[in-house]
Known about the structure:
Citrate Synthase, domain 1; 58% helix; 386 residues; binds acetyl coenzyme *A; three-stranded antiparallel sheet; mainly alpha
Amino acid sequence: MNESIHPGLEGITVAETRLSHIDGENGELVVCGFPIADLATNATYEESVFLLLHDRLPTADELAAFRADLASRRDLPDEVCAVLRRAAAEETPAMDALRMGIAAANLGPEGDASAANAAGADDSEALARRLVAVVPTIVATYWRYRQGATPVEPRDDLGHAANYLHMLTGDEPDDAAVRGLETYLSTVVDHGVNASTFTARTVVSTESDLVSAATAAVGSLKGPLHGGAPGPVLEMLRDVHELGDPAGYVKGKLAAGERLMGFGHRVYRVRDPRASVLESAAERLYAESADGDFFETVREFEAVAVEALADHSPDRRLDTNVEFYTAALLDGVGIPKELFTATFAVSRVAGWMAHCLEQRADNRLVRPDSRYVGATDREWTPADER
Ligand code: ACO
């Protein structure tokens, strides 16, 4: 029997992937060969998704066709709208509504997900594109109902990021906000075998379907140790901006044994490179905004927190992770904090899908071992004698 146990699977390599590479010691992230800063500052989200699915950038014609294809897959079946309307009426949190919406996404014109799975690679990729296209519609439709407003129909003349903003507000999207969101979506589109991606790969390793994989991945992303951090980060930053004294705030949290949201990472031992990309994008956005002094607080808070965490945890370097500047950037873009994690899913669903297709192409059922530490040699007693 193998005696070594790896809780959290730390240091265990479970797959070969061509999708993204993380160097945690040096703070580097490469997506399909591109350093994340290059990809995120240049790519539209559609280009990033094409790159993940095809391992190359699209030509101009291919990009136009890919954009049009995604735009044609955005509509929601009435049944899903009904679920989202009910979820909003019950004040169900956004990630739970998204989980329900994705789970029902194969009610629509793509037909049965398992059939697509059996039919081969082309149909699987079409279903992957459907899931990428439909997640923003699910989130925006839920949010419109939550606001007591009518859902806004997707517009096929708008790109993925612009259309998402349009469906949330009903307004013509602002160029700076679209660029900020576009940068965010490409920055977080893939990140190795993180918890939600591993969840998705595990689901398809059983030869299950892509809708089931995406549904399970949403459940994994929701937790505060993974994608659930940016909402609390924004609340913390807004509190500090209002009350002042970031050093006192940080000291109080650490003294109480609480974790500072937006800091620390399982893989990075230095600043998360995505934090730098998002910081620059947020800086550009806030330079044009009336809320510029908030961004100064954000930066001051980061400096204070990193210093305090170094004192607090000298043996384990804790630095800024992606969620810290996600909060500032998405707030600047105009995304409500209740939708931060769901907006993460709007991007990451493409990474999940690409990993699922990769897993499927060279599959091995994911089935680790466990060591039994429970009771032994018990004798059964009938219920009336216990
Ligand atoms: N604030 C204060 N202390 C921390 C923090 C933090 N943000 N993160 C880790 N620590 C401390 C832990 O308390 C622990 O100390 P101990 O050994 O004295 O108990 C030590 O650092 C190691 O922590 P682990 O939990 O072993 O580190 P792990 O690799 O499992 O955690 C994680 C990584 C979950 C991201 C953690 O740093 C954390 O909880 N951060 C805050 C939440 C957050 O920002 N989540 C978003 C992550 S990014 C993403 O998933 C997209």
